[in-house]
Design brief:
Blueprint lengths: L5 E6 L4 H10 L4 E2 L8 E2 L4 E6 L1 H9 L5 E2 L3 H6 L24 E2 L16 E4 L2 H10 L5 E4 L14 E3 L1
Parallel strand pairs: 1-4, 1-5, 7-8, 7-9
Antiparallel strand pairs: 2-3, 6-9
């Protein structure tokens, strides 16, 4: 009988080291190599794969991974049908959950979300942003941003969600 191995997604990028530290505190030794997307872990029943947190829930939902470490925000953004086991209180800069914020330029006349009706919003979390404005009955154009979102207002977007 072959031994079942847990396929575990580890967030690549900014959360990678914080996740490694979390595993060390739990008694596991995990080693990352700049040349591999398969970190070594001192448990033969776990196989790790580095993947972007933004994609994690999708691969768990599809059964490609058995479990993964990602944010609740990315589960919502991907509308993934997965079971959340627990909330880990850490992010790349603190031990607090991530907060997405709606931002406008300092000199903007916008004081509340409703003031953005008919305007353009740039963000990496398109679904979350659309849902936020829809719940408030505010019609906006939401565009995906590939990065450097903060540079978009006021010329490329009226506001951003970061």
């Amino acid at each position: 009988m072959s031994k079942r191995v847990l396929k575990l997604g580890i967030p690549a990028g900014s959360l990678q080291e914080a996740t490694g530290e979390l595993f060390r505190k739990a008694g596991y030794n995990i080693k990352f190599s700049s040349r591999s997307y398969y970190p070594e872990i001192d448990d033969e029943e776990i196989e790790c794969l580095l993947i972007r947190a933004q994609e994690m829930a999708r691969y768990v939902e599809q059964g490609i991974l058995d479990a993964g470490i990602t944010g609740h925000d990315w589960i919502l953004e991907n509308e993934a049908d997965v079971h959340e086991i627990c909330e880990l209180m850490f992010s790349k800069v603190s031990r607090k959950p991530v907060r997405w914020v709606l931002c406008v330029p300092n000199d903007s006349a916008v004081q509340k979300a409703e003031d953005l009706a008919g305007k353009r919003i740039a963000t990496e979390v398109v679904n979350l942003t659309k849902n936020y404005f829809a719940k408030r009955g505010v019609n906006v154009k939401v565009e995906f941003s590939w990065g450097a979102t903060e540079v978009k207002p006021p010329k490329l977007a009226d506001a951003i969600v970061e």
